[in-house]
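Marked as duplicate of an earlier ticket. Keeping the data here for the record.
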Amino acid sequence: MTNGSGSPARTWDYTLQTHEVNSVQVYGRAVPGGRIGVKYSTDGKDLVVADAGDYIYPADVRFDRPSGRLYVKAAGVTAAFSSDQTWLFEYDLLQRHSIQRVRVDPSVLPHECPLTNPN
């Protein structure tokens, strides 16, 4: 699948273990309308963690095991304002709720994890 510009879409599909030894599947795709979701193995609950909008795609996902927090960077150009935007989502996997969503200067964030499998 491509991301709309013809390049391979970055995808996530990974099962991780939280500090409490619960399995959580993290999944998503960097495409128009793309978002990052999680599915809990304990009860099958499926939740959206990050949804930045049609033209702001997920770009990086990171997990902090000690805190149980998932961080999602989303970036792109909005249709209405034609300006680059970068958003950072923080989600508590243990309590199952969003902590915050903030627009950030991308220069203050670490480099994105490399794309290892374009399929």
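See parent ticket for discussion. The chain has one domain: 11-105.
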